[in-house]
Each structure stands twice: as C-alpha cells, then as structure tokens.
Design goal:
By secondary structure, this protein is an alpha+beta fold.
C-alpha cells in the first residue's frame, strides 16, 4: 500500500479529533500541577496578654482587615491641629514614602510581566526587498518568472505558548504576587515610621519651646534677685559674695538658653525634612509656642498579642517568606522538561496585492521540547540556594515577631514608669516653688541668708525643667507604644501616579544628540 500524498500547504495538516482531544486533556491535566512547596503561613506562639507570664495562644499570620479603633489615626487623640496638619503634609511630601510608592509600582509591573508569561506570545514581521539578479537571468518568485530588478514582499505571523507543565511560570507569578504584597506592606511600614517620627519631633520641638520659656523666666527672676541683692549690699545688709552668687546663677541659667534654642532649631529642621521641605520652612508655622501635646484618652494596654499581626513590618516579613517559598518551586521546576507549542504563518509575493493569496502561504505548527540532561548539578544547586534563601526569610519573620513583642513591652513599661516619674516631679516642682517663695520672702525680711534663696531657686529650676522633659517623654512613649502596636495611616495613598511624567519629544527635536555624538567622535 503506497504512502498517500501530503496535502497542499494551503489546506494545512490537522490532527485527528480524538488525538487532539487527548493531547489537550493531557496538557490541561499536567498544566494544573506545580512542583515545589505550597506556601502556608507559619504558626507561632504569642502571649495572650502583655506583661508577666500568661497562657499562650497560636496565631497563623492572618492579616486583619482594619486596625483596632484605638490604634487608627492615634495622633489625632493628642488634640493638636498643627500636628494633624503636619502629618497630612508628611504623607503627601515625604521622600521615603515617594520611594516606597515607586517600589509598589515596580512590584506591580513585575507581577504583570510574570502573569504575561502564562499567555501565548504572538509576533509579526514583514520585509520589503528590491533586488537584481542580472539582466540575462530569470528569477522565479512563486508562479511568476521575472528578469532584471524585482520586488519581494514578505509577511509573517509567529506564535508560541509555553505549556508550563511543571509550574515554573505559575510559581514566578505567585512569587511576584507576594512581592507586590510585600511592597505594599513596605509602604505601610514607611508611613508608620514616618508618622511616629513626625509626632516625636513635633513633641520634642514643643518641649524645647517650653524649656526655653522656663529658662528665660527663671533667668529674669534670678536677675531680679541679683538686683535686690545689690540693693541690699548698698544698704549694708548683704555681702559682695551674695551679689556674685546671684549674678553667677542668673548667667548660668541664661547659658542654657542658646543650647536649647540650637536643639529646637535642629528638631525643626529634621521635621521639615520629613515633610520633604527645606529645613527652615517650618520656622514661621512653629514660631508661636503651644503646650506640649498630652495623651488624654485611655492609653492602649493589655492588647491581645495578635494585634502585632497588624504591624506592617511583621506582615512584610511574612509576605517576603511567601515570596521566597514560591521561588523554591520556581527553581525546582527548572529541573523538569519544558514543552511549548510553536507555529508560524508566512506569505511572500512580488507585488503587495498578491500577499495573502493561497499559493504564497506557508505555515508550520508543532510542539517544542527542552529537557535538561546534564548540567553538572547547576539546577540542583539553584534549588538548594532558593531553599536557603527561604530559610533566611523564615528566620527574619520570627525575628520581626520577637522584635515587635519587645517594642510593645519596652514602650509599655517606659510609659508606665514615666507617668509615675512625672507625678513625682510635679510634686517636687510644687514643693520647690513654695520653698523658693518662702526663701525669697525670708531673705527680704532679713530672716534668712542668701544661700537659702540661691539653693531654692536652683532646685526649683532643675525640678521644673525635669518635669517638662518628663512630659515630653510621656508623649513620645505614647507615640512609641502606638507605633509598636502597628497604629498608623488609614487614609488613601496614591501609589499609581508616577513622580516623573515623561513628555516624548518629536524625533527631529531630539536628534541633536546624534550631532553631539559625531562631533565628540572627531566628526565634522
């Protein structure tokens, strides 16, 4: 029995229907599997409450949809409109936030690229050629014989589709998706740190203003005491030593003012930089002194430990662990065969109008198989490298959780003890204020020595200054506690609009680079 002739190219070759169905079924079945480990959020043990030993509870890293009410926009509970405005401006203008938003756009584009690898690729090509093979020789082009110069037009369409039988591209898309999640958590973490820093520097600036005002009032009072002492010296009821001590104490207090003013300006400069503005841009806004912000509502405490899962740095670490787990599967899939379906269609003619006619069409279709046979262990080593990387991120996740626990405990303890310290300092300042008033009155009546006045005023200034520093510490500890618990920004952040908008100039405008290139290369 003879071999039947091959059908003409224009009719194509078709796989028998049962075989085609079986092939597609097998491709779909194999396409559903992916080698490598599937990610599961690690289960870690957390204390049920903060503080001393308590029963433990298990948390598996599930992401909460919203922050607890007492953590969302916590800075607004300091009741300072200026601070609220600075936070809004920082979120809009901070350069670290802008960088984090750009990284979100990078991760989003990377994910789109990875997902695109799952789809077929179609390419087109075309060409035009004019040639002359010699006037005495005829050229055959399709069914036409020509001599002398002739034209040749070619059009082609190619397509390829990697079946991804072992999930290399799907693992890549999975890793890119987790990478996008990680970039978004990095943006949230940047916002959390930014808002905490803005609040801290703002409170410190108000603290320096209060301390400067205290030093100025104290120095003025001490100058009055020195003037009184000089008057008593002239009356013969005080000594030159008393005058020297009084003037020396006033000068010592005045010497504190430049240092406080310098610290205040440096704090303002840092605050302006956080807003993405020049260092001196906040001088006018902050010129008018305001009280040190104080947390007046109940302060978060005894918060369940799973609130830590709202911390963006913990969630970032967990997403990175998921990303690098998927990369293990991606490296493992590279050790398996790679199957693709490849096809192309092309047509050629000596005239444009003849393109696409049946007699000029040629096509091909078929599977392409690539099998790694020998690579000296390179692919296996790549899997081991990916596994080691995954382990690093697992350890980093555990470290992030422990650091979060430590941050909460430290901030909670610091706030608790600072509030006790502040109450004692307030009592101390009140007592020294009474002592200074009594010492001054007794000195004026001649019933006490000037040393009593000197000691009382020095102690009063020290106690009042320490109390102001403690008030600042209470609020900054409150800021640290809210940061440690994951409180932060809950408003909209535009991570899609680029910072730089490219305006494509016409080619004839931008062609001047060629002239510069030629001239720099020794051309005319």
């Amino acid at each position: 029995m003879g071999i039947p002739p091959r059908p003409p190219a224009r009719d194509g070759w078709r796989l028998p229907a049962p075989r085609l169905v079986a092939l597609l079924f097998l491709a779909g079945l194999l396409g559903g599997c992916a080698v490598g480990p599937d990610y599961q959020a690690p289960s870690l043990q957390f204390p049920a409450k903060w503080g001393a030993a308590h029963p433990t509870v298990s948390a598996n890293g599930t992401e909460p949809d919203n922050l607890p009410p007492d953590l969302a926009r916590w800075w607004e509970r300091l009741n300072d409109k200026t601070l609220d405005g600075l936070v809004e401006r920082a979120v809009a203008g901070n350069l670290d936030v802008a960088t984090a938003k750009a990284r979100v756009r990078e991760a989003r584009a990377t994910r789109r690229q990875a997902l695109a690898a799952l789809a077929p690729v179609v390419t087109g090509d075309g060409s035009y050629t004019r040639a002359d093979n010699g006037s005495n020789v005829s050229a055959q082009s399709g069914d036409i014989t020509v001599s002398g110069p002739f034209d040749s037009f070619d059009l082609g369409l190619g397509a390829s589709w990697e079946l991804d039988l072992f999930g290399a591209n799907r693992r890549s898309a999975e890793a890119a998706t987790y990478g996008l999640d990680a970039a978004e958590e990095n943006l949230r973490n940047t916002l959390l740190v930014l808002i905490g820093d803005v609040a801290t520097y703002y409170v410190e600036a108000r603290g320096y203003q209060a301390r400067i005002a205290l030093a100025q009032r104290t120095a003025a009072s001490q100058r009055e005491t020195a003037a009184l002492t000089r008057t008593k010296l002239e009356a013969g009821t005080a000594t030159a030593l008393d005058v020297a001590n009084a003037e020396g104490q006033a000068a010592s207090t005045e010497a504190d003012i430049p240092g406080l003013q310098s610290s205040y300006q440096q704090t303002l400069h840092q605050l302006a930089i956080l807003l993405g503005q020049p260092p001196s841009s906040l001088n006018e806004l902050m010129k008018r002194s305001r009280p040190i912000p104080k947390p007046r509502l109940p302060i978060p405490k005894s918060v369940p430990a799973n609130v830590l899962l709202a911390r963006p740095d913990v969630r970032l670490a967990e997403r990175e662990l998921a990303q690098y787990t998927a990369k293990v599967g991606q490296a493992e899939a590279a050790r398996y065969p790679d199957v693709s379906l490849v096809g192309d269609v092309s047509t050629s003619a000596t005239n444009v109008g003849d393109l696409g006619k049946n007699s000029t069409i040629s096509w091909s279709f078929g599977p392409s198989l690539s099998v790694p046979i020998f690579n000296a262990g390179q692919l296996k080593a790549a899997v081991e490298y990916a596994q080691a990387e995954r382990d690093e991120y697992f350890i980093a996740y555990r470290s992030a959780v422990l650091t979060a626990l430590q941050d909460v405990e430290n901030a909670s303890v610091a706030l608790q003890h600072e509030r006790r310290k502040s109450r004692s300092l307030a009592t101390s300042a009140t007592s020294y204020r009474k002592a200074a008033s009594l010492a001054r009155a007794l000195y004026q009546s001649g019933s006490s020595s000037f040393l009593d006045v000197l000691d009382a005023e020095r102690s009063l200034y020290s106690a009042e200054d320490s109390y102001l520093q403690s008030e600042v510490a209470i609020t900054t500890d409150y800021v640290s506690l809210n940061k440690a618990l994951g409180g932060g920004w809950t408003g909209f952040v535009d991570s899609r609009t680029p910072e730089v908008t490219d305006e494509m100039a016409p080619h004839f405008v931008r062609a001047d680079w060629a002239k510069e290139f030629v001239q720099s290369d020794g051309g005319p």
